[in-house]
Amino acid sequence: MNHLIKFCFLVLITFFCFGDAFSYTTKPFEAKDQNANHSVSLYNNAEITNVGDSYYTFEEFLAKENSLKFEAIEGTSTNLGFTKSKYWLRFTIKNISELPLLYYLETGRPVTDIVDLYMLAEGEPVKKMKNGDIIPFSEKSFAHRKVIFPLNLEPNKTYKLYINYISDGEVINLPLELHTPTSMVLSTYQNQLFNGVFYGIILLASAIYLLFYFGIGNNSFLLYSVYVLSVGLLHLSLDGYFLQYIDPESGWLNKNAILITAIFSALAFGRYAQIYTNMKKVEQSIEQWTEYYVGCFSGPLTLSCFLSGWKGILLSHGKPA
Questions:
Q1: φ, ψ for residue 218 (rounded to 5)?
Q2: How far apart are CA 188 and CA 176, in angstroms?
Q3: What region, left, alpha or beta, does residue 317 occupy, with left being phi > 0 and alpha being psi -120 to 50 degrees?
Q4: 3-state secondary structure of 321
Q5: How many CA atoms lie within 13 A of 169 on its CB side?
Q6: 111-161 pLDDT, tens digit each
Q7: pTM of the prediction?
Q8: Which domain of life does the UniProt lineage start with (predicted)?
Q9: Mind listing the pLDDT tens digit for each residue in 228-270?
Q10: Are 162 and 58 in contact (CB under 8 A)?
Q11: What is the mean pLDDT of residues 291-318?
Q12: CATH number for domain 22-179, candidates 3.40.50.10470, 2.60.40.1180, 2.40.160.210, 2.60.40.2380
């Protein structure tokens, strides 16, 4: 009798400890109210798989879905790091109310090259929504600098959603924030306030140093003004404003904006430090190393200017050109 009790006890422990390893499935998110003033993170309801360099159409992915290893999302804004791997994420949303609901899903980063969402519901055709940094702004599923998808949920329906992330080496983040219409507006206003202050300070600092240059004639002020301005342009690219306002067709300039502005800022800062510290009089060897540093950054900048479309060669909607 004692042996039987011990055996049953071990079976129960095994079930509770390891049961999830064999039957892990995420719970569907139950949507019932679109009037909240705050967003909800779906990381507890989602799981993701890394397919490496393999490119799958949605139909091919569905055929292989059961053979792929999915993992839970670690946190509210999981960072996948600098990667060229392709990722597929899946989760389920169920509208348990008697009314149609509208939500906005925020995911990825504005500079993620391709973020495509596929939405499935019983009795309905597959709905595909496009987003990402290498498509024209007018083709984005929602006219916003961020990666946002509008989700229209019919009453008492369950939806399976799949998201495909493709990057050329940039960082991929997974915020997975589900916004109500109200929280979407509030979040946009808040971002506009903070970004307005940040870019205003950048523009003011650049203008002040430019005035110093015209008033005093010292080249270090001009170089520092260029450095500050290029840092501002770099953040415009990272925040998605470059695609939205400067190059909405996502042409060569937008595809290379991060590289060009980053190199310009490094070159300007290097020259500024060189002139400001008067290295020629201090130490000749340091001056030579500075020239080498500037030359190392000038090469990639020149290549990026002549090899237009380098990003498009690497990526053509996820496939090699």
A1: -85, 125
A2: 16
A3: left
A4: coil
A5: 6
A6: 999 999 999 998 788 999 999 999 999 999 999 999 999 999 999 999 999
A7: 0.81
A8: Bacteria
A9: 999 999 999 999 999 999 999 999 889 888 888 888 888 888 7
A10: yes
A11: 53
A12: 2.60.40.2380
Identity at 91, one-letter amino acid code: F
Q: Residue 193, class by beta-carbon neighbours within 10 Å (0-12 exposed, 13-18 middle, 19+ buried)?
A: exposed
Q: Which of 76, 75, 30, 33 is nearest to 183 (CA)?
A: 33
User: Hey, what amino acid is at 207?
Assistant: A
Question: Tokens in use for 203?
Answer: 């523009």
Task: Report the distance separating Cα 153 and Cα 103, nearest Å.
Answer: 8
175 closest CA partner among 24, 46, 37? 46
Strand partners, 49: 88
Rounded to whole angstroms, the Cα distance separating 292 from 203 reads 30
- Helices 219-238 and 252-276, axial angle in degrees (round to 10): 150
Place of tokens 């229209």: 152
Computed over every residue of the chain, the mean pLDDT equals: 83
Every domain of the chain and the residues it spans: 22-179, 185-314
DSSP readout, 190-210? Answer: HHHHHHHHHHHHHHHHHHHHH
C-beta neighbour count of 130 within 10 angstroms: 15
Count of Cβ atoms closer than 10 Å to residue 109 Cβ: 22
Distance from the Cα of residue 259 to its chain's centroid? 16
**Which tens digits make up the pLDDT trace of 184-233?**
999 999 999 999 999 999 999 999 999 999 998 888 899 899 999 999 99
